[in-house]
């Protein structure tokens, strides 16, 4: 996932219509299971890439349906 993040982000920017400058990312864990949920390390790596390299394009990042297993690792809202 972390390796695909820059590619996916660049493609999203390519499809932005004129006048749109920011992107909102929604991560929905509704269908996640213990075997498919990314690790905390992977999530941190993706967030680091987005925060350091795309800070001017990031509008909002929303995470919904977070599994109970990761309750203590939930990011604080900014």
Query: Tally of extended strands?
Result: 2
Helical content class: 25-40%
Strand fraction: 15-25%
What is the H/E string? HEHE
Give me the number of helical elements.
2
Helices and strands: which structural class? Answer: alpha+beta
Average residue pLDDT: 75
Largest sheet: 2 strands, parallel
The rounded Rg comes to 13 Å
Low-confidence segments, given as residue ranges, are none
Distance between the termini: 23 Å
Strand order of the largest sheet: 1-2
Shape designation: globular
What does this structure look like?
With 78 residues, the protein is α+β, with helices and mostly antiparallel strands. The chain is 31% helix and 17% strand. It contains two helices and two strands. α2 links the parallel β1 (23-28) and β2.
Descriptive key words:
78 residues, alpha+beta, two-stranded parallel ribbon, 2 helices, 31% helix
